[in-house]
TrEMBL record:
UniProt name for this protein: ATP-binding protein
UniProt-listed InterPro entries: AAA+_ATPase (IPR003593), DUF815 (IPR008533), P-loop_NTPase (IPR027417)
Domain AAA+ ATPase residue range list: 206-347
Short name of one Pfam family: DUF815
UniProt KW keywords: ATP-binding, Nucleotide-binding
Transmembrane segments annotated in the record for this chain: none
PANTHER family registered for this protein in UniProt: SLR0930 PROTEIN
Amino acid sequence: MKIEEISARLAGLAVFRGLLEDPVLAAYSALIRALAEGAGRLAVCEAAGTFEAVLFAADTDDLSDYIASAVLECENICARRAARGALSPALEKALHSELQFLEELSALGLDELLAAAGRDGGKLAFLPRWTAHPTGLAAAYEARLSEMGQLGYGMFARHHVFMLSDEGRLTPVRHPDGQRLADLPGYEREREKIIANTKALLAGLPTNNVLLYGDAGTGKSSAVKAIVNEYAPEGLRLVEVKKNQLYLLPDLMDKLAANPLKFILFIDDLSFAANDDNFAALKAILEGSAGGRADNIAVYATSNRRHLVKETLSDRAGDDLHEADTRQELMSLSARFGLIVTFQRPDKALYSQILLELAKQYQLPIPSDQLITRGEAFAIRAGGRSPRAARQFIEQCRAGVL
């Protein structure tokens, strides 16, 4: 292809137009445009240097792999339609054409670009050369289309844990907690209920919203994060939502409903004051709203309170004429979670088991009897037995603090 053709086809991208917003590919496009417009030697050198600096800043010199990765993870209409099995012939034709072009483009090095522009590469020998090679991009993307429901597209293909901003935008967590189920000794029976519910969500079966209730430090949040890490390769994603963001959930759920992946909306350490406006918002989300809940979404929440609403003796001694109705209203929120899993503070036997399992994971060469005695003493100082206290004790032993 001549450089004018390359520039025109790059400018005319429709399905993959989002690629032009990528800093590396935007700089690459500027270099191609400079060559196509017959820019002078200095302008071409500036465009080439700018592009290569941005490429190197992305921690790579391999443009072929960079383009292939960007294309495979690009969110576009064809990816969304293919995930729903609704790719039209017109879109399929446009997709195939652009994929073939991008595959050819990704294999071009600087010398090939200069040759396509009719320029002597020898006069620009001082410019760095990036790595370029055939990628099989078109075939790889066609294969990816058939797996969109499991691998996702866009940022959902690159990340599996997200935060919700106060403006309602999803932001990927680039370094999520790497907790795994194998790292969590004890509470296997409790976690098995949550795992079964999560598997039902992944299989498209009826799924319950889940409330993990119990004492502090018993591993409620860790259980949710570990389950998401375990099943992320099967299409599971987690969105962490703060209590003061609950009013944003209806819009978020509408957006996620069309996504082929499965989502857990995770609310950590949930509790309400009796006059909290978020109380009614969550009730409507869990059950009772006109829109209902999409089949690919479930709400998982953790709390130290069984009934979620803080209630004092003075509340019960107030002047409410319909006290029983009010109390039922306050207790109704937790009843809207179809699955409630209780994490109780461990007894001595379970705490000892957790200590021994963690010591094995950390390869601590401490005799079992000494480990348990010292761990019990640590738990007393820490305010009571819990998996959190056990892990803190083992980590401090591993670091040589204790």
